[in-house]
Write a structure and sequence with these properties.
about 260 residues; mainly alpha; rod-shaped; Chromosome partition protein Smc
Length: about 260
């Protein structure tokens, strides 16, 4: 080995020694050792520091695990609280719904009770009226009952009399209508006969006038044909017209 190599190697070892010493000083300073510390002091302090670091790691791991467990418990408690709150809200909504339904049922029940009470009241009033009528009837004296029976009998008798009078009047009216119909039928026949007789007379009168006119021109002593009175002819015509009017009125009345 040359001298240069030896010197270089020496420098390297020297640098390493210096670096080691610096590192030991910094470690001692970090470990708060005295300036005159020994290698054993540094080794012991390092062992303590390493053990403390290991214990710290274990403690950190334990704390981390404990924190994880606590966080898990807290999360479970939060979930339980959220579920409890949800259940409470559901129960609250259900309670509100039940309350509203109960209030509505109460309103309907009050109305039904009011209607039932009114109905029962009317029934009681009707029963009271019936009972009052029965009591009134039972409270009548025999004289009052006899008077009422007489009054009722008189009313029945008056009704029967009025009914009989109405039936008699109806029969009389039917009889008069029948007689009038027979008279009108007879009058109608007489009207037809009078009309035929009047027409025949007029034809005969016309023929007689013609014969008389011819006779006047051929013979001076010809006897004129007899003539009916004008009043008689007018009366026959009036009677016939009156019969027509009466028959028309009767037909209109019976239509």
């Amino acid at each position: 080995m040359s001298q240069a190599d030896s010197e270089q190697q020496l420098r390297i070892w020297k640098d390493l020694a210096i670096s080691k010493q610096v590192l030991m000083n910094e470690a001692a300073q970090a470990l708060k050792l005295k300036d005159d510390f020994t290698a054993d002091d540094l080794r012991g302090a390092l062992d303590v520091a390493i053990k403390r670091a290991q214990d710290a790691d274990v403690s950190i791991a334990e704390n981390r695990n404990r924190a994880s467990e606590e966080i898990g418990k807290m999360q479970a408690e939060v979930k339980t609280i959220i579920k409890s709150r949800t259940d409470a809200e559901s129960q609250r909504d259900a309670a509100i719904t039940e309350k509203e339904a109960a209030e509505q049922a109460l309103i309907i029940g009050r109305k039904d009770n009011s209607d039932a009470l009114k109905k029962a009241k009317r029934a009681v009033e009707d029963k009271q009226k019936e009972l009052k009528a029965i009591n009134t009837a039972l409270a009548d004296t025999p004289d009052n009952i006899v008077k009422k029976l007489k009054t009722l009998k008189k009313q029945k008798l008056d009704e029967a009399t009025a009914r009989k009078n109405a039936e008699d009047a109806n029969r009389k009216l039917k009889k008069e209508n029948k007689q009038q119909k027979e008279e009108l039928d007879t009058l109608s026949e007489l009207k037809e006969q009078s009309a035929s007789l009047l027409a025949a007379y007029r034809e005969l009168r016309t023929w007689a006038d013609e014969v008389e006119a011819k006779a006047d021109s051929s013979a001076e002593d010809a006897v004129p044909a007899p003539k009916a009175e004008a009043k008689l002819l007018s009366a026959i015509e009036t009677t016939t017209a009156g019969a027509d009017e009466v028959e028309e009125e009767r037909e209109a009345a019976t239509a």
